Amino acid sequence: MLKPVLKPVLTLILTSSLINTASAVQLLGDVEVFRLPTAETTMGEVVTRYQALDDGLTQQLSSKKNEVDATQLAARQGHRLWQQAVRDVQSGHVDDRPLYWARLAMLNSLKSTSANFKMADWQNDILMSAVEKASRGFSDIQYADDVQIKIFLTGFDPFFLDKDITQSNPSGLVALALDGFRFDVNGKTAQIETAMVPVR
Q1: Where are the domains of the chain?
Q2: pLDDT-based confidence at 200, cuts 50/70/90?
Q3: Are 131 and 102 in contact (CB under 8 A)?
Q4: What is the band of 14 on the pLDDT scale with cuts at 50, 70, 90?
Q5: Residue 58: what pLDDT?
Q6: pTM
Q7: What is the rounded CA–CA span in Å between residue 53 and residue 131?
Q8: Kindly report the CA angle at 20 between 14 and 22, in degrees rounded to 5?
Q9: In this structure, are strands 188-197 and 182-185 parallel, antiparallel, or unpaired?
């Protein structure tokens, strides 16, 4: 459970980071998505590391017959992406970039894949927001009941990619490395939870 004082803080961070997310993805995300072919040519293994999750999203979306099921699928795949990126970094694959590029691939897929019902633009925006929120770790913030010191950290997406398409962001790498980390401070149990914030 989050302490009452922490909940408004996390809500503010989430709101300020993801407000008008769909609009941001539409306006600035297109610029990011346009870099995908160049990135894949330059560092294919990085860009396609989580391709199976993107494939799963598109394959399953075509069978969804209503907005609720489609949104739950988008959120679930986004959450799986975040969890896989955390596991990879914490098991020794020290690279935050696959998460960034896989998220863009998922958002791009949502633009070109139709569910098994007629979706309005605003419904598609909801799916994109679900992927954004979940794949950035905001759906994964959970402190254990025995934790006495709760720490929340944010990392950031890679940027200046027009100068260097292979750019990483150390803050994002640290966020993935420390998510869920527990340690003792003067006899009290501390836990770190993290999330990734867009740079747009």
Answers
A1: 6-143
A2: confident
A3: no
A4: low
A5: 95
A6: 0.87
A7: 12
A8: 110
A9: antiparallel
